[in-house]
Specification:
453 residues, mainly beta, 2 domains, eleven-stranded mixed sheet, five-stranded antiparallel sheet, 5 helices, 40% strand
Length: 453
Amino acid sequence: MSVEVASHFLLIENVSNANINAVPIVKLCFAFILALTVVANPAHSAELWNHETGMLRDCTYTPTLPCTESIHIITIDGKRVQGIPTGRTAKQSDVKGSQLSDEYSIKGLNFEYPASDRILARVFYDGTWFQTAIEPSWLDQGAVINNFRIETPRRSTSLWCGTEKTPNFCYRSAQFDQNVMLEHRIRIPKQFVTAFVNSRTDYLEYETGIDAKSINGVEYQSIVIRMRVIKKAQVLFAALLPDPLATSDWADFETDQTIANVFSTRSRQSLSLGKCAGMPSVSVISNGLNPGIPIWDSSLSALTVAVSGPHFQVNGEVNRGFFQAKVSSELGKCLWGFDLSLKTRAEVTITESDGGTQEILTIMGHYDGRQYILTANNFHYSSNTIAIRLVQEKQALTRGEFATCKELRRLYQFGIARDKKSKGVTKASISRTLYRLNFALDFDRDGVACERK
């Protein structure tokens, strides 16, 4: 069963509150900012969610099911404010399971009008995966909807929603417009073991296996996710604009909606980790579009992740990339065959869709006692693939330097060319800096090190 996790359009069909009489039922088409398709595996989730993707509610309303135990927002000055359910709900009509998500009041905070102090917490769940999407409430946007219209002056039109016969404007959701941290605590069956997490943020931490308990014979645990809210350059995904990056290098608008996907070792996606599938865990985050699923490339001995985003921000500045990966000791030992607590360093390559490579201006890596944390900054976005290879310090030369062509080709399968002219008809990656470091491996001095004939 193929389920599109969050459709490009969010249809608000229901605003429900027994104590609110004057709230109109609105049907508005909102541009949703995630285009990630997840393949559910019903065989693994039959006893957890009736084979279908549905929405988790607050535990107040579903105390014997997987549910949201709590939501807190942590302000920049350290104040920790708990969300209180308002009793109002949003309906997610494009899922087959439970369709309701809860609205929460965060007393003392104020988000973009008309959200006031209210947020929505939408949790998609199918038993093998869940996605948490937290944003200021849009339940009252109907009266001021034109304030949220997305104009796309760098495209041929701004009418990307609706149908070809009746195109219409698209609308964004409200913004937090402040520097806060979100903390979401979710009750989930104990057999849900995290394989990997991906998110659009510059800070993510998660804890699993908290507060084990049995409810009606089902063993549960709590998972806590903390994510920082940041403004991100966003392209518009819409019915009439399914591949926005292919038609423009520019961001269409900004968003600070915050999303994380958590995949279990029982999900089909965990097979991307090859021989180490089913072993926890790795997390990847970026400030681009939602980063892809980590994939083990045995030919490179590297963990690869697709990252993408608009090349330019809305204001015309270059959209500088941020990426971070955290690899657990257990997974690192399985993938690379050595203890990450030993002196370890990362070799990182960013390959663009045309085969060229980028020089990353900032790379930091360290082991914190549980996991190896790698951070890459200041690359530029297109449709990139980041390859991460961890090596023991005694094996490492200068970053990007290789002792033999065999080692070089683990990351650069067709060699490294000095420039486009030298590359010619070969499939070599282009990097003047890397070519200089590996000049000794260009045995015929044709401007390509370790090319394949």
